[in-house]
Amino acid sequence: ANAPTKVADGVLTNSAGMTLYTFEKDVAGSGKSECNGACATNWPPFLAASDAKAGGDYTIITRTDGAKQWAYNGKPLYLWIKDTKPGDKTGDGFNNVWRVARA
């Protein structure tokens, strides 16, 4: 299975090179995201296609709205609305609960 992410300087990104993040309030392996509503507006879930297949360290969780979201090592992955170009990491450490996802 091809990984849904790319790696740049040890940081996971989406195919467009945008930095991915994890949320400290998400419990690894729980299969749930604690970032919904306004949170998910600011931190868009890294969504998986309906036919995407999990593999290796990547799993797919189902969000409360039914959307499928990629997780890495059991932690759901997100983008940050204020990152504007590949390589931006402006969400790292935000509110002490958001971290850059590292490979």
Mind explaining what this structure looks like?
The chain is mainly β and 103 residues long. Helices cover 5% and strands 23% of the residues. It contains one helix and seven strands. The chain has one helix at 38-42, and strands at 6-8, 11-13, 21-23, 58-62, 68-72, 75-76, 98-100. The chain has a three-stranded antiparallel sheet with strand order 4-5-6, with no helix packed on it. Strands 1-2 form a two-stranded antiparallel ribbon. β4 and β5 (68-72) form a beta hairpin. The chain is globular.
Summarize the structure.
With 103 residues, this protein is mostly beta strands. The protein is 5% helix and 23% strand. It has one helix spanning 38-42, and strands at residues 6-8, 11-13, 21-23, 58-62, 68-72, 75-76, 98-100.
Task: Encode the helix/strand succession as letters.
Answer: EEEHEEEE
> Would you report the number of β strands?
7
Segments where pLDDT lies below 50 for 5+ residues? Answer: none
Number of helices: 1
Helical percent range? under 10%
Mind describing the biggest β-sheet?
3 strands, antiparallel
Query: What is the mean predicted local confidence, pLDDT?
Result: 96
Structural class: mainly beta
End-to-end Cα distance, whole Å, is 17 Å
The strand order across the widest sheet is: 4-5-6
What characteristic shape results from the CA principal axes? Answer: globular
CA radius of gyration:
12 Å
In terms of DSSP E residues, the strand content is 15-25%
